[in-house]
Write a structure and sequence with these properties.
Blueprint lengths: L3 E4 L2 H21 L5 E2 L1 H10 L10 E5 H14 L4 E4 L11 E5 L2 E5 L9 E10 L3 H21 L9 H17 L1 H13 L8 E4 L11 E2 H5 L1 E6 L2 E6 L2 H9 L16 E6 L2
Parallel strand pairs: 3-7
Antiparallel strand pairs: 1-12, 2-3, 4-5, 5-7, 6-12, 7-8, 8-9, 10-11
Helix pairs in contact: 4-5, 4-6
């Protein structure tokens, strides 16, 4: 049974996540692995030089070859303060991995499973030249990710009545279909277009923005340095077109009602 000492504030959460990111960056430099800030973390670096004020997570992306090497190396190099969650390690049911702070525990409003505070590490895979095929891949993966989310959802919790009570019907169906089968379908899509052989790449297995995720591999791999919370981190040289692809006019701040954090409580584990 986990004993907690106190609840972390939003600023303490960000500080701990930055601490995880710095350790992740250290491991990547040590082993000559490529990674780049992505999603809201990259947007925060460009627009705010740090966290988006109302955001509370960190996302990075890695070329598939580097991503697989990182997972294989974690056992020997991560200290006891950190853990890695990955489907290939048998301790996670999502098509990406999380580097987790073992000194914290997160209680989520919508999920049954509780972990430590984390950063998301997203693999970047190859994509075909044909945009119709790209759209098909993202649409199919989105369907299977929806099933995966249902398998871990908390019954009776949701942003509206339909989501709250619909889970009582949909979750048993999702569990019957199974997480293993969903992951197999998602992984089958990426195997068709090996990273090394493609002209285009993107976050495919957990790509939330569809074809807007796609980047020319040459521009993606050519990194530039950006500032995030007082530290320098790598970003793809095509960061402007990438951010436009997933957010549109990313310099325009969203309306107040859409400036949401993740609904979770984070606690320091008592020594």
């Amino acid at each position: 049974m986990i004993t907690v000492s106190y609840r972390l504030s939003i600023e303490e959460i960000k500080h701990r996540e930055l601490y995880i990111l710095l350790e992740f960056s250290h491991q990547c430099m040590k082993h000559h692995l490529r990674y780049y800030l992505c999603g809201g973390t990259l947007l925060g670096a460009i627009r705010h030089q740090g966290f988006i004020p109302w955001d509370d997570d960190i996302d990075v992306m890695m070329p598939r070859p580097d991503y697989e090497k990182f997972i294989k190396l974690y056992n020997s190099d991560l200290t006891g303060k950190f853990s890695l969650l990955s489907s290939s390690l048998g301790n996670f049911t999502r098509p990406f991995c999380k580097m987790m702070d073992n000194d914290t525990v997160v209680i989520s409003y919508y999920k049954n499973s509780n972990t430590g505070l984390w950063i998301d590490i997203l693999p970047v895979d190859g994509l075909p030249d044909d945009l119709h095929l790209v759209k098909k891949i993202y649409d199919e993966n989105a369907k299977y990710r929806s099933i995966l989310k249902l398998t871990d959802c908390r019954l009776g919790m949701g942003k509206n009545v339909f989501r709250k009570w619909g889970k009582y019907i949909l979750k048993p169906v999702a569990n019957l279909y199974g997480t293993k089968r969903c992951l197999q379908h998602i992984e089958k899509n990426i195997m068709l277009y090996p990273y090394e052989q493609m002209n285009y790449v993107g976050v495919v297995t957990n790509g939330l923005y569809g074809i807007g995720e796609r980047m020319q591999k040459e521009n993606f791999e050519n990194s530039v340095s950006v500032q995030f919370e007082g530290y320098s981190f790598p970003a793809p040289s095509c960061w402007d077109s990438y951010l436009h692809g997933i957010y549109g006019d990313y310099w325009q701040l969203p309306p107040l009602e859409k400036r949401n954090t993740h609904e979770m409580k984070v606690y320091q584990i008592k020594d």
